[in-house]
Amino acid sequence: MSELTRPSFHGFEQIPLREYAERAYLDYSMYVVLDRALPFLGDGLKPVQRRIIFAMSELSMGAGAKPKKSARTIGDVIGKYHPHGDSACYEAMVLMAQPFSYRYPLIEGQGNFGSTDDPKSFAAMRYTESKLTPIAEILLGELGQGTVDWNPNFDGTLQEPTWMPARLPHILLNGTTGIAVGMSTDIPPHNLNEVVSACIRLLDDPDASVKDLCEHVLGPDYPSQAEIITPRHEITAMYETGGGSIRARAVFVKEGSDIVLTALPYQVSPSKVMEQIAQQMRAKKLPWLEDLRDESDHETPTRLVLVPRSNRVDVDALMGHLFATTDLEKSYRVNFNIIGLDGRPQLKNLKALLKEWLAFRIDTLRKRLTFRKEKLERRLHLLEGLLVAFLNLDEVIHIIRTEDEPKSALIARFGLSEEQTDYILETKLKQLARLEEMKIRGEQQELAEELAKIIAILCSNAKIKKLLKEELQADAKKYGDARLSPLVTRESAQAIDETALVASEPMTVVLSQKGWIRAGKGHELDPAALGYRDGDALRDFVRGRSTWNAAVLDSSGRSYSCLTHTLPSARGNGEPLSGRFTPPSGAEFVGLASGEPNQKFIVASSYGYGFITAFENFLAGKKAGKQLINADDAADILPPVALHDIESDFVIAISSSGNLLAFPAKELPELDKGKGNKILQIPPARLKAGEESIIAIAAVKQGGELVLHCGQRKLVLSWRDLQAYQGARAQRGHALPRGFQRVDSIESQ
């Protein structure tokens, strides 16, 4: 049987699983895109929002009506039009009622509909009441005037509108967000007056560019008084491409010595901001702040008070740091991805969006006028028949009383249409007797004049545009308001360097053999005299400052770094480095380094290779560190050695066999990372057999001396003594005196 054959099994069609899965996924994808996540350009609504608004209008919950229980609305929505979860449906309804979420709320809620601090803290639907707001009329006002297509609901028992006959581009007024399959949308809200002004400009000048339209639409207008600080050219580019980002910044004022935040960016929680600031204060990263309070209430929804430590605090620098490190400054993604009039999702720029909406609105106007025209024509037709009946009233009454088939008799006698005849017959005799010719002719004249105006408008594109312009201006006058989000030019916020808040003090960083680290104040600290955990001892130490970074080198040649002042105190045992960093499996921490970024260090391996590198190359921003020195698997990584002056310092290398070589530091290459060059010659056979290796590296400044610790004995080599061991880099060196050839450690002075 071939693959294409689809046999029937008990009357059911069978198809390959692959084809079924592909079809199911595509069906689901299109459902999510078209029927759930993305809004329609015409009314700017998603299906669930459209159904909520329509259900509320059917329940007579207009702006002038008394509010009704939200549970009643949701019950109608999910029972008649939207068979999905009640909680998700109620959440969509609440969102349209929150003045801090919607720029122009479509629903007026009574009860707990959430707060800016927690938008999802709204009460259950059985406790809240709601009704439509006056501005919802821009969506519903023309619904019953032949302006939309109607489709059966999910069970085919009712009809619901396919879209709303929006009189304004609601897609821009309140914006929307949504995530579909393979695409998403993020449309910010805008000011009604600005959008209407841009529409009129495009009607008057169809060739207007996006830049021209940006003279009217200045930028998004969020339901928040936070400042929009995105540069003008970036906003224009966003409208030209249909995508980009918008940055908003909180507004603050000075009240005496206090800093008062009066407005937060859109959808930013005051409690979250307070927690972010408090966290920095607990971590001692904000020494300029003494206290913070939340004094928000019903009259002033946003009032966060920051108390500086003194009047000398630079407020601008402090707020710049908070803008850079907290949600007091937030970025919003913008993506004008919507379903167009052709039913397809597409990314549109501002001009394309407004142009397409104007085409939608003109088509809606034509449908409304055509509907009214047909209604007027029908009424005039009926009035014409009614006038015939009035002029021949006695005869008409006689025919109705005497004839078995009065309808046919009236049509034959007066030449009336069936519709006219039905209307006369359905009119009560008492009403027929009360008819007045003047009233009939007056109504005819009035309706005929209106009909002539409508026909004239329908026959002229210019008059259609004029009518559209007048309606836009009327709605703008009725519902428009001033911009909430001011557009302000601000400099970029800069976080204060953490080290700038730390006093510069001498510090000694200590590393144990088990990988525990700590730091103590002062350079007089003796690391050997510190207490260590059982089975642990000193591995390495370095003297630096609290404002410097401390770097750690592990046995695999990777480097890790952290700020010195963040290390635990040397009064305790410290903390394990494995909690701060994630070295490779089996790797041990072997050495420390600390200094200014341009400070030079020698890094080397026990196989006799090494190079000079700047301290900045030790720094790694990730917990996994970065590879600094490459060495053979069998080689050990030696602790880094600080140089004083490359031009005058001597590098000292000592092998396990007691050979010492001194050569100028400038003979070593300077590298960012790598293996380096040979420092001390070791016979390959002895190196491979593990019989000899480099055990120590040191740098001695000119005129300095070298101290060798050999068990209980100590050998001090002065600068003059070291001349006897001087040679070129990569030479064998000279043997140390007998009794001092087994060196445990060295130090330069």
Report what the structure shows:
- With 749 residues, the protein is α+β, with helices and mostly antiparallel strands.
- Among the domains are: 45-165, Topoisomerase II, domain 5, CATH 3.90.199; 251-327, Gyrase A, domain 2 (2-Layer Sandwich); 364-479, Orthogonal Bundle (Topoisomerase, domain 3).
- It is built from 20 helices and 37 strands.
- The strands form 12 sheets. A 4-stranded antiparallel sheet has the order 12-13-15-14, with helices on one face. The chain has a 4-stranded antiparallel sheet with strand order 21-19-20-24, with no helix packed on it.
- Helix 3 (70-81) packs across helix 4 (86-97) and helix 12 packs across helix 15 (418-426).
- It is elongated, with a radius of gyration of 42 Å.
- The relative contact order is 0.06.
- Residues 1-5 have low confidence and may be disordered.
